[in-house]
Design goal:
- By secondary structure, the protein is mainly beta.
- It has one domain: Beta Complex (Metal Binding Protein, Guanine Nucleotide Exchange Factor, Chain A).
- It contains two helices and eleven strands.
- The strands form three sheets. The protein has a six-stranded antiparallel β-sheet with strand order 5-6-10-9-8-7, with no helix packed on it.
- Strand 3 and strand 4 form a beta hairpin.
- The structure holds zinc ion.
- Zinc ion (ZN) binds next to loops.
- The site of zinc ion (ZN) has 8 residues, from loops.
C-alpha cells in the first residue's frame, strides 16, 4: 500500500517514501533544503533545449529558453515556466534574507531567487541541478 496522498494539486508523501524514490542528493536538496556544491551540478553548463521538470514530482518548472550563464555555479533561470508551478517563501536561515523557491506541487526545495538577474525580469532563479530533470526536446 502506498502512503502517497494527493490533496488538490499537491503531492504529499512520507519522508520514508521520498527516501526510497529519490537519490541521496535529490533527497538532501528537495526534502532537507540542502544546497549542492557550486559548479558541481550536472545542469550548470547544460545547453540542450528542453523542459526542466521537478526531480521529485515531474511538474514542469523551467524552460531552457529562460536559462542563462550566471557564473554563480548553479543553473540559473530568468523565470519559471509557469508562475503557479513555483512557490516563493522568505528564508532567513544562514544569517541571510533570501527568497526560497519551492515546487508548488510536492513542496520540494529548489533553490533561491535573487533580484540581480538580466532583463526582462531582473530575476535570477538559482536552482540546484539535483532538484531538476531535463527532458530534452
Ligand atoms: Zn515537485
Amino acid at each position: 500500500m502506498s502512503d502517497t496522498r494527493t490533496t488538490g494539486d499537491k503531492i504529499e508523501k512520507s519522508e520514508v517514501e521520498w527516501r526510497k524514490e529519490l537519490t541521496p542528493m535529490q533527497y538532501a536538496v528537495l526534502r532537507e533544503k540542502a544546497t549542492e556544491r557550486p559548479f558541481s551540478g550536472e545542469y550548470e553548463h547544460e545547453h540542450r533545449q528542453g523542459i526542466y521538470t521537478c526531480a521529485g514530482c515531474g511538474q514542469t518548472l523551467f524552460e531552457s529558453d529562460a536559462k542563462f550563464d550566471s557564473g554563480c555555479g548553479w543553473p540559473s533561470f530568468t523565470q519559471p515556466a509557469a508562475e503557479s508551478h513555483v512557490d516563493e517563501e522568505r528564508d532567513v536561515s544562514h544569517g541571510m534574507v533570501r527568497t526560497e523557491v519551492l515546487c508548488s506541487k510536492c513542496n520540494g526545495h529548489l533553490g533561491h531567487v535573487f533580484e540581480d538577474g538580466p532583463g526582462p525580469t531582473g530575476l535570477r532563479y538559482c536552482i540546484n541541478s539535483a532538484a531538476l530533470k531535463l527532458q530534452p526536446k
